[in-house]
Amino acid sequence: MSLRERLRIIVAMWIFVGLIGGPFTLLVAVAAFTAFGPFAPHSTVSVRAQFAPGEEVKVRGKDAVDLRTGDFMILALPATVDPSAVTCEWKSRVYSTGEQESGTVEPVAVEGVEPVVTDTRSGVEYRPAVTTAGGSGWMGIDYVTCRGDGVETFAVTEDKGMSSTARTSAGVVSVVFGILITGMGFGALKLTQYWRRQPAMPAPYLYGHPGPFAHGPGPYPHDRQR
User: Fold this and answer.
1) How far is CA 120 from the centre of its chain?
2) Distance of alpha carbon 3 from alpha carbon 10, whole angstroms
3) 128-176 pLDDT, tens digit each
4) Quick check: helix, strand or coil at residue 45?
5) Exposed (0-12), middle (13-18) or buried (19+): which is 188, by Cβ within 10 Å?
6) How far apart are CA 88 and CA 81, in angstroms?
7) Contacts of 95 (CB under 8 A, 6+ apart)
């Protein structure tokens, strides 16, 4: 296979990627800006552990609840609880120096989830109350204690919701890539059309040329017959 044929295959692939993948990426951007599809607020969660008000729960380290690395969210039961009435304190592990840091979990508004969420395991409805996303973070938090008026039980789970800032960033990146990929697809299509027209163009050596080193029938065969 010649280099030209290989180049034609690559260009054809770019046409497919550009004209199919580009518009699809722009649709992803629309979904991100409108909080639709995969960017829509979550209505379900997977509760990792329950604990009573005032009870300390370990969220990091050995023998902790089953939380993946990342931000976590505190849920309150019943689902009619006012989230602003919930407060949580945190502690770090005891370091080798004997120190243990502590503080209050910064009250950050929970985004990317519905006002009421359902546990996929038990079907119980909870009110998202506190999240560490964008607030105190998760690096130094190993233990959490929460309290709140009217709260019967707290639960903890990963915070998989996407904030409005993150959605906007995802939308902007998708728009840039969508325009770039679509433009490259159209450019590859134009290049293919140029190649298709090229063999139809007259080539001088096909008709010959006058002069002492002429070959072929010459540019005007009808004159030679005279």
Assistant:
1) 23
2) 11
3) 988 876 554 556 788 889 999 999 999 988 877 666 666 778 888 888 8
4) strand
5) buried
6) 15
7) none
Walk across the sheet containing 86-91 and list its strands.
56-58, 143-148, 86-91, 102-104
Which region holds residue 75: left if phi is over 0, alpha if psi is between -120 and 50, else beta? beta
Phi-psi region of 142 (alpha: psi -120 to 50; beta: other; left: phi over 0): alpha
**Report field, pTM of the whole predicted structure over 0.85:** no
What is the rounded average pLDDT of the residues 33-61?
83
Between 126 and 199, the higher pLDDT residue: 126
Backbone φ and ψ for 98, nearest 5 degrees, come out as 90, -5
Beta-carbon contacts of residue 164 (< 8 Å; ≥ 6 apart):
111
- Residues 142, 59 contacting (CB under 8 angstroms): yes
Distance CA 55, CA 61 (A): 18
